[in-house]
Amino acid sequence: MDDRIRLLIVDDEVQFLDSIAERLELRGLAVVKATRGLEALEIAREQKFDLALLDLRMPGMDGHEVLKLLKEEHEFLEVIMLTGHGSLESAVECTKLGAFGYLPKPYELDDLLQVLKDAYEARLRKKFEQDQERIGKITDMALGSSPLAILRAMRELDDDRR
Amino acid sequence: MVFSTGTGEASPALFDINKKRHHRQLMRRTFLHLLSLYFLPLLLLTVYFHIQTLNLREEGRQGHLQSMAEYQAHMLDLFIRERVINLTNLINSPELEIPPTQGSMRSCLDDLHRASETFVDLEIFNARGDQVAYAGPFPVREQRNYSNERWFEVLSTGEQEFVITDIYLGFRQRPHFTMAVRSGVDGDSVVLRATLEPDRMYDFITSTVGAKDLHTSIVNRDGVYQVVTPNVGSPLAESSLVPPETPSLGVEHVEIDDRAVVYGYAWLMEAGWALITQDRPQESDGREFLEDFKIAIVALPVFVIIFLVTYFRAKNIVRIEEERDQTKLQLVHSAKLASVGELAGGIAHEINNPLAIISEEAGLMGDLINPEFGDGRITLEDMVPRLERIQKAVFRCRDITRKLLGFVRQTEYRLAEHDLTKLLDQVVDDFFLHEMGLSNIEVSRHYDPDLPLLITDANQLEQVCVNLLNNAADAIEGPGRIDIGVIRRENAVRIAIRDSGSGMNEEQMQRIFTPFFTTKETGKGTGLGLSVSSGIVEGLGGVIEVESESGSGSTFTIVLPL
Q1: What is the CATH topology of the domain spanning A6-126?
Q2: What is the mean pLDDT of residues B322-350?
Q3: From CA A104, how far away is CA A107, in angstroms rounded?
């Protein structure tokens, strides 16, 4: 099984998309490209991603909307916004909608990698917190139940489907 | 509408004056509209009811005239009938000897007098029409034969039981009328005739109830006054009022000497006379005035209330309008700021995207030759398309900056003392006079004679003036005029350029200072002239004010502080 970090990149600038994808591939990430918001949503429904890079200004479905839908559909997917526009208002709005970070173009690759790292960490923490919460809940609920029942409930938690 | 560039509080005075004028106008118009809305129906209703009341009053008056005429005619009929009965009783009385003696005649007349004082004298005729006896105040004249007289013929043929003549003067030269009755048969018959004084009869009629307010007169069938008030006419004169024979009573309208006259009439049953009633013309009726006064007392507060309500309502409406204008102004201002922000954002996006491409391509090439990532399979040929992409992205950026350069060309100011009129003259003479002459535009200059020298950047100010004059000329189609005025007001110099062109609507005015906005046709304007100009003027510490009305030209005023 491929154990690389799975990254979805959405941008309407094809040249940019190609080169950034190739650079990240070289650095050992599994990258999938999409040039439109709708396309990205469809791809995300078929495959699982850990992280997503999303351009704010795109023809068709706007980055805000794609972000909103991605976050609704995938609980632990962390989305980082990319934009050439770079205004404070749009950054605030994206954060409200659940974006992990906001990176203005052009950026230095190290900065991007740093953000990706932070985002992945956040994803893991979130997952971990939720797992702990669930474990606590299951043990509370299952007080007095058979160990097998608890084992099964816990197994259900520990899936990779998320 | 007035707008000015820059910070919004740039020209509060001018703005306020115009707004105030507008609001005053609005106030007046709203007030009048509301007033007519409230008053007009009320006024119409008042007029309607007034007319109704007048009609009713008139109808009542006419009814009164008619009923009075009828009543008085009836009284007169009764009076005449009584007199006829007096005579009939007398002729049939055994006291009357035939032929009568003077003494018995005297006592007969006295009897009649007791019955009514209208009787003046008494005559008796035989069947042949000879007067056989007389009693009365007049001396006995020589015997006359009356057999050919109309009244006598009527009586002797038995057509009527009695005869009443119209009033005549006779040889006594006093108006009187006679009444005759007959008794006995054919050859033996006797005719009794009495003369009556109409004045007494008139007094009798006019003494009836309600007669005092009216003029009462009597006319015969030929329209000759029989009895009449001296104010109206004289007895035996032609009356202008000739009532119709049928119906036997009614109200008539006639015009006499351009004056509308209304009268009531009723024909008598016993004589060929009609009784006529007219309103006595009344001098200043106090009662009517009192009525009007009462109505005024009620109406005045109502009108005052309506007036006040209307006034406050209009004021309220104008206040709301004022507040709305205030917010609109603020909105305009923030919209302008937003558009600047939008522009900056747009530029940033346009430049940052190719920059990101450059960065990624360069980075990738670096990666490919980096032994850490590359495995030696990179060739120089592989680099070519990547280098081309980088160049393309660079040119994209260059295009954008080139566009922008036009927009923010001027950045430095070279200040010196300049004579504004000379500067303007130079601009107009060098750039415009010839061209304007060709397109039939009259240019007139009005300069304040004692303008001080102005510390400014001549080149930049020239550019602004050229821009504004260009716009003015472009706004004019066909012949027109441009006025250039320079005045000093308070601590500022105002350069006003007014054109007789097409003007702008409010929406256009709100946007003219926005970069890339133009009202000119595509290709003719860049949409940068005014934004550049306003930038320059602001840099010189001034503002550009605009006044425009769609269809009647625009005025752009450069206000520069001294």
Answers
A1: Rossmann fold (3.40.50)
A2: 65
A3: 6
